[in-house]
């Protein structure tokens, strides 16, 4: 058993206070260290994995799309200006024809009969004119004789009544001659008109070309009294064609004569045809639902005759281009690095990619992407911001201008936190 002295020594308050102080000190320091560790863990910047793409040098262009229809550069519709029965049809679709070649013949028997009648009337009119001229000469001689006699006799012979009667007969004979001459001209005009009708009984082509369509058959009755019927459509040449496309008013200002065009047709889905803008119409072609469109004509070379009139085509008109341009992926324009602090900001400040956006400086104006005025490149694993000016874009790549950029640099597209 402990003695009374030992018990009193164990109950010494100084030693108890010292142990208690040491214990609380250890607890306090441990708590501080834990709090510091938790704070460091929560506020530490994690490691990020960056997706990058190399800056390249290349060609780029922008274009607008338009739809249209192919047609020959020169196409004529041929019909008939006379009525009758079709006797012969001498050509068919796809036949090549030469200028002046007869395509079809219409029965001209009634026209020939009219021509014979007019020619007979002309001969009769000429004979009547000859007789009228003889009569005129006689009346003129009589009138002159009476005038001379009247002057010689001092007005005594013939009487004034006889002199006036001779003058009237002379004038009547003169009028008869003029009437016969006018009648001859009228008959000659009818003959020439009938000869034209006789010529038109042979339907000919005014140009060299190819028959695109034929709507006439042997035995068909032609009635050209009110409107000339259409029998043939002739294309001057299918080696040169035109593509007429409709362009919206929002894009028409970018389209200029001479711009290159690439287009395709359903018949050759794997083939791309090249052409040039030949004309841009000033007048609006149509307005639907308050949307105004304009027509542009595109010249097309068709030496291999693959393209046919009436084919529908989808064209891409190159409105701007650049060669040997510094190119970056367009998605890089939308990237801004984020930190753990940034992640706490409102998502309303993020774009559709979840990336921040700022105003952009552009060169040349026009259809430029309105994105960041800077991009981020990865150097030794660390993002570095580079100020740029944006050029043209095709939606996938974008032209940029900056003295700080060169090919081979890695531009950052996205980032994610390393797990």
List the helices and strands and how they pair.
Layout lengths: L3 H7 L2 H31 L4 E7 L1 E17 L2 E5 L4 E6 L6 E2 L4 E5 L2 H44 L7 H41 L1 E3 L4 E6 L6 E2 L7 E6 L4 E9 L11 E6 L7 E16 L2 E11 L10 E18 L44 E6 L2 E6 L1 E5 L3 E5 L8 E8 L2
Antiparallel strand pairs: 1-20, 2-11, 2-15, 3-10, 4-6, 4-9, 5-8, 6-7, 8-10, 11-14, 12-13, 12-15, 13-14, 15-19, 16-17, 18-19
Q: Can you tell me about this structure?
A:
Strand 18 (389-393) and strand 19 form a beta hairpin. The protein contains 4 helices and 20 strands. The strands form 5 sheets. A 6-stranded antiparallel β-barrel has the order 2-11-14-13-12-15. Helix 3 (109-152) runs antiparallel to helix 4 (160-200). The protein is α+β, with helices and mostly antiparallel strands. The two termini are 65 Å apart. The model is unreliable at 346-371 (pLDDT under 50).
Annotation keywords:
alpha+beta; six-stranded antiparallel barrel; four-stranded antiparallel sheet
Short description:
The protein is α+β, with helices and mostly antiparallel strands and 419 residues long.
Which overall shape is indicated by the principal axes computed on the Cα atoms?
A: rod-shaped
Strand content: 35-45%
Number of helices: 4
**E-strand count:** 20
Low-confidence stretches: 346-371
Q: Rg from C-alpha positions?
A: 51 Å
Biggest sheet details: 6 strands, antiparallel, barrel
Mean pLDDT: 82
The structure class reads: alpha+beta
Report the end-to-end length measured between terminal Cα atoms: 65 Å
N-to-C series of helices and strands: HHEEEEEEHHEEEEEEEEEEEEEE
Spatial order of the strands forming the largest sheet: 2-11-14-13-12-15
Proportion in helices: 25-40%
